[in-house]
């Protein structure tokens, strides 16, 4: 009888050690998985949800996350204005409901190969092609309204004119070359976001 209890105790100890080791391995595997998770992957999970984006050296952008490119996001203002484009490098933090943030740590959506190839330059070239009026905010908080004339590999040529005005030579008050690294937000139609 005494031997039976001894074996049962040893069996329970072995089971406990196995469970502890398995839990430690599971915890380490989860840490490793999270260490490989990118901000972009988490943002893909938040598409369609209300978020607030704190932007480095610029005003926050709040609204519904409508798109995620390879290095930018688009947020539609809940007040009804059009979208703001924010380079991922300008994102300081994202605020969202806790269940959404927790769910975003376990990506389930399939990755769009097209969206992953749509760079900030691609997006800005499209805005230039469409002649969309924008308000750009750069590092330091300076902002200008106008139209993107051209988008290069790492910069845009920007024609300054009043918000809501079509880009006409007579309306242009100046020009700027703006490096992508300086861009904080691009508000479509000169909206405040």
Helix and strand layout, with pairings?
Elements: H1 2-35, H2 39-45, E1 50-55, E2 61-68, E3 72-76, E4 83-87, E5 91-95, H3 98-104, H4 113-117, H5 120-130, E6 133-138, E7 143-151, E8 155-160, E9 174-179, E10 183-188
Antiparallel strand pairs: 1-2, 1-5, 2-3, 3-4, 4-10, 6-7, 6-10, 7-8, 8-9
- Helix segment tally: 5
User: What is the averaged pLDDT score?
Assistant: 86
Record the strand order, biggest sheet.
5-1-2-3-4-10-6-7-8-9
H-E order:
HHEEEEEHHHEEEEE
What is the name of the CATH architecture of the largest domain?
Roll
Largest sheet: 10 strands, antiparallel
**Poorly predicted residue ranges:** none
Q: How does the helix and strand content classify structurally?
A: alpha+beta
Q: Judging from the principal axes of the Cα atoms, what is the shape?
A: rod-shaped
CATH class of the largest domain: Mainly Beta
* CATH fold naming of the largest domain: SH3 type barrels
Commentary on this structure:
This is Fis family transcriptional regulator. The protein has 193 residues and is an alpha+beta fold. It has a ten-stranded antiparallel beta sheet with strand order 5-1-2-3-4-10-6-7-8-9. The protein starts with a helix and ends in a 5-residue tail after the last strand. It folds into two domains: 1-36; 39-188, SH3 type barrels. Strand 3 (72-76) and strand 4 (83-87) form a beta hairpin. The chain is built from five helices and ten strands, in the order ααβββββαααβββββ. Helix 2 crosses helix 3 (98-104). It has helices at 2-35, 39-45, 98-104, 113-117, 120-130, and strands spanning 50-55, 61-68, 72-76, 83-87, 91-95, 133-138, 143-151, 155-160, 174-179, 183-188.
